[in-house]
């Protein structure tokens, strides 16, 4: 499914922009933009699509999106009573001077991970809602401090959940360590083949146990889990953007049997690949 590029209202000298909408219609199609975006949606019932993630939402939704990550919200109602507060800030914020200080390390990690989309639950959701509702504009210093405080709270929150797979989100490797970049590049080029843990450990001159500990510490998941997520990301991309059959997609994504493929997909998405494809296009087109 094709997405369109949105041109946001932020100016080059704006630290951020904040947009508030009542009775939002959610009629904008699947889209992406060059900026980071924090969305707070209240009194909502419908669906949220971020990368290859599609979830039903009811009540309050708080989601942080990185640059160029495709996304869309769809309401179940033609007449909406939902409210939306959106904060957008520029991609180069991650590389600004303030992000070079050690006190900003958690925010840097947050912004890198947001390239896959992150949704937050309570209590973080309620705390951020109050902060976002208190911001009236971007022209006073107090608003800037509140914006930075919001990022800090999100960066140390234990209530976040990553939404999209690395492959589907085009997750950037630019700021990863050399070793991690080597491994991610090997996965990107060889995911269709068998990739052994011993082979990738040898690539970076580490034992299997040392590499496993190192990889999990740097990425938050085991190498086996990362490889599976990458392959499943390829699957969802092919399901949503091509007319390939389920059987073709299975082997194109590096799975060695249809039964293993179906089991892994259903464990992650709770539905079959066929159901995922039908649901995705139904939600995007309605």
Automatic annotation (TrEMBL):
GO terms for molecular function: DNA-binding transcription factor activity; sequence-specific DNA binding. Residues 181-279 form the HTH araC/xylS-type domain. Keywords: DNA-binding, Transcription, Transcription regulation. SUPFAM superfamilies: Homeodomain-like. The keyword Transmembrane does not apply. It holds the Pfam family HTH_18. PROSITE patterns: HTH_ARAC_FAMILY_1, HTH_ARAC_FAMILY_2. The keyword Transport does not apply. It comes from the Bacteria. This is Helix-turn-helix transcriptional regulator.
């Amino acid at each position: 499914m094709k997405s369109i590029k949105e041109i946001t209202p932020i100016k080059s000298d704006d630290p951020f922009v904040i947009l508030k909408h009542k009775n939002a219609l959610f009629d904008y199609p699947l889209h992406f933009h060059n900026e980071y975006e924090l969305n707070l949606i209240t009194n909502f019932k419908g669906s949220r699509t971020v990368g290859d993630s599609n979830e039903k939402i009811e009540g309050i939704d708080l989601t942080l999106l990185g640059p160029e990550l495709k996304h869309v919200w769809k309401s179940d109602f033609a007449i909406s009573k939902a409210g939306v507060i959106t904060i957008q800030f520029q991609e180069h914020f991650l590389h600004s001077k303030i992000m070079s200080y050690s006190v900003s390390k958690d925010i840097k990690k947050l912004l890198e991970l947001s390239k896959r989309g992150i949704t937050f639950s309570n209590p973080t959701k309620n705390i951020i809602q109050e902060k976002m509702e208190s911001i009236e504009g971007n022209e006073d210093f107090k608003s800037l401090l509140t914006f930075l405080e919001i990022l800090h709270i999100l960066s140390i929150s234990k209530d976040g959940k990553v939404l999209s797979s690395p492959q589907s989100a085009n997750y950037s490797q630019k700021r990863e360590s050399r070793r991690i970049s080597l491994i991610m590049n090997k996965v990107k080029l060889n995911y269709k083949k068998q990739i052994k843990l011993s082979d990738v450990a040898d690539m970076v001159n580490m034992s299997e146990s040392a590499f496993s500990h190192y990889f999990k510490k740097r990425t938050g998941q085991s190498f086996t889990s990362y490889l599976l997520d990458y392959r499943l990301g390829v699957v969802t991309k092919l399901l949503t953007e091509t007319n390939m059959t389920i059987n073709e997609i299975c082997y194109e994504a590096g799975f060695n049997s249809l039964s293993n493929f179906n089991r892994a997909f259903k464990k992650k998405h709770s539905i079959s690949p066929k159901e995922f494809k039908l649901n995705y296009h139904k939600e995007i087109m309605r």
